[in-house]
Structure formats: structure tokens, C-alpha cells
What we know:
The structure holds 2 protein chains of 2 kinds.
Chain A: E1 3-7, H1 11-23, E2 27-31, H2 34-43, E3 48-52, H3 60-69, E4 76-80, H4 85-93, E5 98-101, H5 106-119, E6 132-135, E7 138-141, E8 146-149, E9 152-154, H6 158-169, E10 175-176, H7 177-185, H8 192-207, E11 217-220, E12 224-227, E13 232-234
Chain B: H1 2-25, H2 39-109, H3 115-146, E1 152-154, H4 156-169, E2 177-181, E3 192-194, H5 196-212, E4 219-227, E5 230-237, H6 244-247, H7 269-279, E6 283-289, E7 293-301
Parallel strand pairs in B: 2-4
Antiparallel strand pairs in B: 1-3, 4-5, 5-7, 6-7
Amino acid sequence: xxxxxxxxxxxxxxxxxxxxxxxxxxxxxxxxxxxxxxxxxxxxxxxxxxxxxxxxxxxxxxxxxxxxxxxxxxxxxxxxxxxxxxxxxxxxxxxxxxxxxxxxxxxxxxxxxxxxxxxxxxxxxxxxxxxxxxxxxxxxxxxxxxxxxxxxxxxxxxxxxxxxxxxxxxxxxxxxxxxxxxxxxxxxxxxxxxxxxxxxxxxxxxxxxxxxxxxxxxxxxxxxxxxxxxxxxxx
Amino acid sequence: xxxxxxxxxxxxxxxxxxxxxxxxxxxxxxxxxxxxxxxxxxxxxxxxxxxxxxxxxxxxxxxxxxxxxxxxxxxxxxxxxxxxxxxxxxxxxxxxxxxxxxxxxxxxxxxxxxxxxxxxxxxxxxxxxxxxxxxxxxxxxxxxxxxxxxxxxxxxxxxxxxxxxxxxxxxxxxxxxxxxxxxxxxxxxxxxxxxxxxxxxxxxxxxxxxxxxxxxxxxxxxxxxxxxxxxxxxxxxxxxxxxxxxxxxxxxxxxxxxxxxxxxxxxxxxxxxxxxxxxxxxxxxxxxxxxxxxxxxxxxxxx
Lengths: 235, 303
């Protein structure tokens, strides 16, 4: 059975979430803060960690940093909650595999756990930890927030870069519009469909991607989008 | 303000005039004054003295006024900041319990329940979703204050067209006469330098309110025009109107008027509209007559 470590200092959350994740078919252990999580990561050897960010003793971000510094690439899903979009951006930058805003539907958490596990390459850094992502002649430099098609820099709005980044770090995964709104925009918009579609159209235009014969972004009718090209981490 | 200083310096000016014209108005060494020196010099000195006293008085009065204004503005800013801080904390305190409740509900729902309990569960779940939405709106409000605006040139005519179109498609908007008027002559509506997603949200919130608070048969008009350096967007309806005592409160966070009872909403929609307009350097306004209708206004600086 795949082992998942749940890290949160709120007992009410772990008490309710642990049985739910167990029922979904995982073996679950619980840690109460970052320090506890690091020691459980060594003893319980989870295949995936779901961690809160704000915690006493050692917060989730620092826990993740220490894990990665030690060369431990166990996939991590961060539960962000401070009302700041920068926290979400940072979560990706620091090598979290995915993040979810509190409060969330527990079914969504399980879906994310499965998706991250499917994508994980045991012992190897995830795409989310790479500085540069490449896909054919499309290159995304995550540090400078610039994208290049061939030798030409793609003229993208910051939101489109964030969207491209999330899609490239989650390739071959069905990304619903709601999920993209929640993770990239940080909040749901009343007419979210339009908001996402507009930026996807911008990406396609700049990348020269034909929606009828997509090289990068495929439309899943009535559901959302999928980044279909093979993405590689480059240095 | 200026005229007060003019009056204060009038005696001195009068003194100068009397000094210059003095000898032609009265004879030298006017005996009634019983003073040494000529009347012109006395008038000049007297005038300057009076003006000096008047200026000192005026200065003190103005300083007191400024002080009072600063105090009021300071208190208002502080109150607004404290309210936002409170809302952020409230949001923070809501998130963890809501996460736990949602997980708990999912656990309960995973086993089959008798019909009565199933109904109770559904009710709790829908209430929890309502609270989650409130938490999401609180986060929007908090983020609006802090995050940088992602500005691009926004074609407001196009944006308004999209909002109106989306609103028309909603079943609740049925049987309302919803119109959009955007000028084409002598030139089209200029662009606004702003965050298109946020501006969309602001207009969308106003239109959603208009739909919520009107009845079938009512009119809703969206109008936009240019007024010197600003674009004015108006959302007007022939709905029930807002009682006068409520008008000054409707922009406040979590305020719900009498007429809003029984109508779903977080009480944050208009607070968001105002926050978005102000982040764009704009303003909001509202006029309403009970029994006749309401018009909301957003004014945005032109790019």
C-alpha cells in the first residue's frame, strides 16, 4: 500500500483527513509539525507528503527546503492558506509538487495525490524543482519568468507565464478550469471559464499552437486543458 | 482660503494708501489726533499692526483646522486598516475549521445513511460550502490590498460586452430587459490601464446585484462613456431601490441591507467592487430612490 504522511498542527484536520485518505486506499501516518515530519519521513518512509505551511517549531516551507537539501525528492503537496498569491508561487519554486488552497474538497486532495504519484519519478527531482523546463523548442526559464520559442522570446503577460509554468510542471494531467483558477489565479472568478480561456488563447497564439492540432495544449471538451507535450528539466 | 488672507492684509494696504495719499486728503499735523507725526504714518503703522494681528489669528485658526482634518483622516485610515486586519484574521480562523469540517463530512457521506440523516447531511454540506465561499471572498479582499496589479491595456467596451453576454445567459436574468450602451461616436471608448480579470469581476458583481435585486419586467442598463480623463461605467436598474439610511453602508464589508434578507450573497460583493476601483485609481458611487431604482457608478482613469 502506498504510504502518505499527513502533516498539520490542527488535530481536527488530521483526525478527519487521515481516515478519508486511508479509505481511498493509502496507508497514512500523521505528523504534527515540520520537525516531526522530518523524523517521520525517515522512519515511516512515505511515498508522498501532504503538509500544511504555517506550523509551530518548523513550518512546512522550511521542512520542504531541508528535505530537498538532503536530496530527498519525496513528492510534497503543500496546503497553502495565507491569503497571498506569492505563497503559491513560492510553493512551486521550492520544489513542492503541487499545492492546494485551504479549505478544499478532500476528494480533490485524493485526486491530486494520485496525479502527483503518477508523475513522480522515484528518487529524481520533480519537474517542479527544475529551474528551466524545455519542451521541443519551447523553453521556460522559471527564475527570470521568461519563455522562449526557439531563439525568440515569447511576449507573454505574467499571468500567462504562471499558467504555462503550472501546465508544464503538470504535464499530461487533466487540468480543470476550476483547478487552474484555484492554483494559478488563487481565487475563483464568477466567470472563470472566460478568464482561463482568454489566457489559454493568449498562450496558444504566442506559442503558435493550433487548437485543432495541438502541439502543446489540448482542450478536453467540457472539462479543461491538458499539456500534452513531453516536458524535460534542463539546467 | 485666499480671500481670508486678503481681508487680513487689507488694513496694511489701506495704511499704505493713506500714507501715500495722506497729504492730499487731510492737512499736515491734523490737530484732532493729538499725536506727534503725520496721520499717514500713523495709518500705515496702525494698518500693519492690525494686519499682523489678523494674520496671526488666521494662521492659528487654519492650523487648528488642518490638525482636526488630519485627525479625522488618520482615524478613518486606521479604522479601515483595522477592519481589513480583522477580516484577514477572520478568514484565517475560518480556513482550518472549514478544512476539517469538509473532511469530516466526506467521511460521514462515505457510508450509506437513512434518508432523514442524508437530508441533514446535505443541509450541513451546503452551509459549509457557503462558509467556504465567504472565506474565498475574504481572501480576495485581502489579496486585493497586497498583491501587485497586473496591468495591461483593457478594452472596456469589449469587457462590458462580455459581462453583459454572460449575465444574459444566466437563468436568473430571464425576463429582465438588459441593455448595454457604449459610445462609438465621435470616437470609441478609450482603453483603461488595468487588470482585466479584476475589472471584469467588478462589473460582474454590479450586474449580478442588479439581477438579484430586480424582478422580471425590470430594466437593467449598463452604460459607459468618457468624461474628461475618466471612463464612467454605470449599472442602473428599475429595482426596489435602497433605503436612504443604508446608502452610506452598502460598500462596507459584510454589510447586508434589509432588502438583501433571503437573497444569497456574502456581503462582500460591493466591498470588492470598491477595492478594485480604488486599486485602479478610480472611485465608486451610488444613487438610489426607493421604489424607483438604483444606479451604481465606477469611474476609472483613462490609460
